[in-house]
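Suppose a colleague, Dr. K., hands you the sequence of a protein chain of 260 amino acids and asks what its three-dimensional shape might be. Before reaching for any lab equipment, you can write down a predicted structure in token form. Begin with the sequence itself:
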Amino acid sequence: MSTWVLLRGLMREQRHWGDFPEQFRQALPQAHIVTPDLPGNGSLHGQSSPASVAALVDACREQLRARGLSGPYCLLALSLGAMVAVEWGARYPQEVSCCVLINTSMRPFNRFYRRLRWQNYPAIALQAVLGGVRRQESLILRLTSNRRGQDAALLQRWIGYQRDYPVRRANALRQLAAAARFNAPPSRPEQPLLVLAGGRDKLVDMRCSLALAQAWNAECRLHPDAGHDLPLDDGAWVAAQVAQWRAATSGKQDEKKPRP
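The predicted structure, expressed as tokens, is then:
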């Protein structure tokens, strides 16, 4: 049984995975799924968010150890979470057996105006000035989902999450700073690596994922019309891609093992 650690992105928490963990479990029945929160989000909203991806890695490792879990882990991670996964695999390679990176971006492979699409700057700036939980969550939903961006019931749940566990503005800024300053390691992580991207991501240009996959000679699979929150828009597709990829990579790893 493999332990899969699912990591969300900026200002999101484990409840934002929605139905995806169950969809993932159906595709990989032997998976043990863990969904920790990053400090400053969800159940850890009272903590201060680290201002570096390296510190986020250490916080995640500490959470898992506190639960009595030990690696190696399979990491499936979205956006900022994918940066955490890359850093984790680079610093502690013995703890990570594979990585699935979803709609992420990172220096030096991607330019800033593609890492956060410039077309969104006015709406984000207006939200920073006006504030408000409903306005914030409505904007995030519209920018991250193509299939459910107008889902009123989902929006109400997201508003409830934020009211339950409010993300402080200072923590949001620290998480944003961690993402903006993160530099990918100089060499490709040694673990098997799959990159997934939404073909109509309105928040992060899909070319960021394509450039990363090309630089690291990693397999990249593109969903034709999903947005940034790919597990929300088509979780079954994500789970199926991972299951197919793991079956193929596990077979290749078995072929490389020395025969007795």
